[in-house]
Predict the 3D structure of the following.
Amino acid sequence: MRTSILSIIAVLAFSLAPAWADHHVTTVVDGLDNPAGIAIQPETGHVFVSDSGASRIIRVVDGKAQAVITDFPVDVYGKGPMYNIGPLGLVFIDKDTLVVGGGGLIDGEELLRVYKVPAAGQAAIKADKMEESFKLSPTDDIKGEGNFYGLASNGTHVFVTCNGDDTKGWVSRAVIKEGKLANYKRFLATKEATEVDAPVAIAISPRGELVIGQMGEITVPGDGLLTFYNAKNGKLLLNLETGLSDITALAYSPKGQLYATDFNWLNTSEGGLYQLISKEDDGKQSIEAKKIESLDKATAMTFAADGSLYITVIGTGEGDAKGGKLLKIAPGL
Amino acid sequence: MRLLPILLLIISCITVEAADEYELQYPLGLKRMPIPETNELTAAKIELGKQLYFDPRLSRDDTVSCASCHDPKKGWSNGDHFATGVRGQRGGRSAPTIINSGYSYFQFWDGRAIMLEGQALGPIQNPIEMDLTLEECVAKLNAIEGYRKQFQAVFGTDVDSVGMAKAIASFERTVLSGNAPHDKFKAGDEKALSAAAQRGSKLFFGKANCSACHAGPNFSDFAFHNIGVGMDKSEPDVGRFSETQMLGDRGSFKTPTLREIARTAPYMHDGSVKTLEDVVEYYDKGGFANPQLDEELFPLKLTPEQKADLVTFLKEGLSSEDYPDIEPPTLPK
């Protein structure tokens, strides 16, 4: 037993060294409306963003936003504050194929959409012009799924965090087959595994484990979990308290360091970017969440190949102006 | 040579403190409780807290103790719609059970206090509950030699409000309920639950959607939700909103534990629902519609048999034969 625990500790060591402290944050694009997802296009390196409240996906080229996919359905999240949400999580499965998690439809009707994205400079396409789409309908015993917030791919599967059935907290999974998706199903009941609500953030570790940020309750501070699962069979490998309140994104830097964004719904002024540093106490693994940068309602992040970190924040707009931004932290994390 | 007596003194102090260390025993099904480093459990402190908890001299007219509204004989609640304080004054909310309350970060229905230490002195100072200022209460207790001696032994001071809060909180942390038929069934005892309770359990964690909020070892997420109770009034109790001023919290109250729920009628924050059968009927209808109604409430369409099974699970599955039926101690003079 001791051997197996130690081997798990060794396997799941995720961030051993503190981050480089002198980083530089710049605003790439502002005026976004509740941006909630980021993906980097293979080969071009273009940054794609879910401009969620504006019901569109944009591509950022040379600091300019270009609409790529428009007219997604939009819904309202929250009872006050309220956020308009349309498209959410994004992931490319090849250079031209973008998978988009939806948030604008009711649970059970919500769609995971797959698009062939037009090349830079070409006209945007409408949201209903997807190549294919999938939903997780209700059954007699299981609620329908929706709010497909976080997407990640390990090359063979696309994994999706869902927020429909709060008794189960599903992570769903689809097989990637010849540039298409197939067999989209509920995969992991994270709430049954952890007894904590809401899988939201998602990443694939350098060793291939599925890493999930369990958000917990938005009205309770410090209940966010970091969990590791076997991506093939869904077995829970490790479940760690983070002390963070509402983890919205997870990402590994090219150096293999793990980072999380904390929205911190109860006190958004305390939200930010954190490095998750692995600790060991009496043979038991734990986490130190070290704050790297304060962020105003961070929602998503991803590292580019050069080590730049892109982060979306909802921000705080003045008057009718939208406060959403795409931020960039220079390579070095 | 002069070091030796000092060393012996240090060793003797350590020995005395170590002998008083209290290791909380967790019943089957419960996890380790978060206990503040500034208030570690000791047997003497718990005993002192128990005396304070049951002592009506903590009220202005010596008629109301903590146990008056949180009575071990009544599920550590009071069996009434509302809490009743000195001079028969009645509050506007029911008395929540103390059982397993040590696990909750937020205390009171609206979460206005943090941890049990933050809660313990609230009712003493409430004019419609125990109606004493802290200064008055401390003075009263310092006039009781038995308390003065115990405070000196436990805290090294005369009676003060900080020590009172720590002692009461320590005692309340020992009021635990677990090892219920549900826990035994989950641990592998297939005979621990009747067939009806097993069906009810499946509904609880599935179609009936109870575990969306009543989750985890305590059957509570200890978060805040608007389930519509009382929202039909012209001036409803706004609950958590009074603390956060966030619109989404209007009409929200903390999710109560369901452990020992059969003993804690009447139900809801205002004690407005008399029986568990009525509670299930309320949820089956989807609660009372209002702008902040939690999205986890919706018509469940349970059959009469399913409703009965659900109630059976609540009564049978969550009632422990090890119920913490603690007798009042002899009070100091």
User: Anything to note?
Assistant: The CA atoms of residues 134 and 143 of chain A lie 16 Å apart. The first strand of chain A starts at residue 25 and ends at 32.
